[in-house]
From TrEMBL:
PANTHER family: CATALASE. The keyword Heme applies. Heme binds at residue 394. One of its GO terms (biological process) is response to hydrogen peroxide. InterPro entries: Catalase, Catalase_clade1/3, Catalase_core, Catalase_haem_BS, Catalase_immune_responsive, Catalase_sf. GO terms for cellular component: mitochondrion; peroxisome. Pfam families: Catalase, Catalase-rel. This is Catalase domain-containing protein. Residues 65-447 form the Catalase core domain. GO terms for molecular function: catalase activity; heme binding; metal ion binding. Keywords: Heme, Hydrogen peroxide, Iron, Metal-binding, Oxidoreductase, Peroxidase, Signal. It comes from Puccinia triticina (isolate 1-1 / race 1 (BBBD)) (Brown leaf rust fungus). It comes from the Eukaryota.
Amino acid sequence: MRNWAPLTVGSALVLACTVAGWPSLAEPAANDKLRPRQSSQTVFEGALATQIQASHQPAEALVYTSGNGQAYATPFAAQRIGTDGPLLLQDTHLVDNQALFNRKNIPDRVVHALGAGAHGFFTTTTDFARQYTMMSLFQRVGQTTPITMRFSNAGGHKGSPDTGRNVRGFAVKFRTPNGNWDLLMNNSPIFFLRDPAKFPALIQAVGENQQTGRADSDAFFDFLGSNGESLPQYLRFLSDAGTSQGWLKTDAYSGHVYKWVKQDACLSFRQIVFKSSQGAANYTAADQAGVGNPAQAAQDLFESIKAGQRPGWKVYAQVMTPQDAEKFRYNVLDLTKEWREDLVPLNEIGKVELTQNPTNYFAEVEQAAFTPGNIIDGWEPSDDPVLQLRLFAYTDAQRYRLGANYQQIPVNCPMNAVANYQRNGAASYLGNQGSRPAFDASYAHLAVAPRAYNNDNHTIWKSGAIRYLSQVSAVDFEQPRYFYDNLSPDQKQSLVGNFAGGLSQVKNPSVVNRALQVVQQASPELAQRVYFAMSAYRAQSS
């Protein structure tokens, strides 16, 4: 493994993407120097490396210039005719500054807009994963892989408090020798839905009222009343688990089922779990309301890394064979169902440590793009319908937000060479793959790697073994009943209070009744307690 200390992650990635001869992750490089390019080097290719190097120099070492590199003597003065005359259009520095300022923001993420990020390493700590997958990062105990992580809140916009009641997101980009692998997780092992067609409706319902622009309790609880399968996630969201004490003290779950595959094409189903090394901890609603710093989670993350504390998570896998999946009580492709740890045990596979804060938030966090479609050999998506739609939705969202060539942005760029027939488009600034033909020309073939394994029978097997169930049934209320029954008395009281407090804000009586009817199917006790607590809230406010 090469020593990354002399380079920031941003500069290393850009150089890896733009300079020929960059050594592979497995190849040592003396003094971190790059091998010279061949004679095909163009006159402008050194410019990009120069700009990256300049971005990491202190202000005192640089001279102010305009965008084209010309030193500029009066950056805070506008040209005008006389003392009181109009501005001059020839003041291109002023015009360029204002034009760029007008365009400095890019579209927010539709969900998970609020976030923070950092860089670090994943280390393989056991040989468990190697028994089930050929993924390169798991093949040797002690092997390290550079990563970038983004932490987020699913709801709200940039500038929202990061400690409020919310679903927390973890996104990890693993930079392996054979491509980037992205793992997307939430702080819950389940989600609100299993039918991806409902996702836009969910986000609208838990978001802002179309008229007032504020939170809408009627819409929030109406979604529950119309979609009983969402109750398990509603209970977690309204419990103390919905107000975690920052990202550092949060566990995370892949939620979706993926496939691990070996060289012999043997497959297994699995989920990934991150357990916080800082210890998972939650606020009560009252404690959370007393948090004065609206950016407490982001500050804790930044200060912990700055202090050299190397915050981290132990990484575990839950594994089922196809035969295990057939016998499992619940459909393993159902995102509303949890793989309880007492039924499907956790197996340690590694650890994550964060060692470096971003040098520039926009370049390394806001422009970071994660998608479950970034996969490598040994890892495959399952037929979970929500996951299948996310494979498209995330890459499509990144193209809208960052442009067609978002994978050429330094923080998203793989460490190994990219060679294909994708050309042109806005911001294609990494050489556009040179003079090679943009098709499979008979006189200029790209070498094609052999298939890593034959997975032709995987879908046939799963289609015969597991069916996707879309109707709400009594089975859907077993896990929320188990969740409630296993809370402590204090935790039950918190859940009842939070649920009743939200429901007391609902104006439409039918929405209240339908939500309570859903809860009743899981736990008559919980439904009754919520009803009486809601009535008490309303009596106090009347």
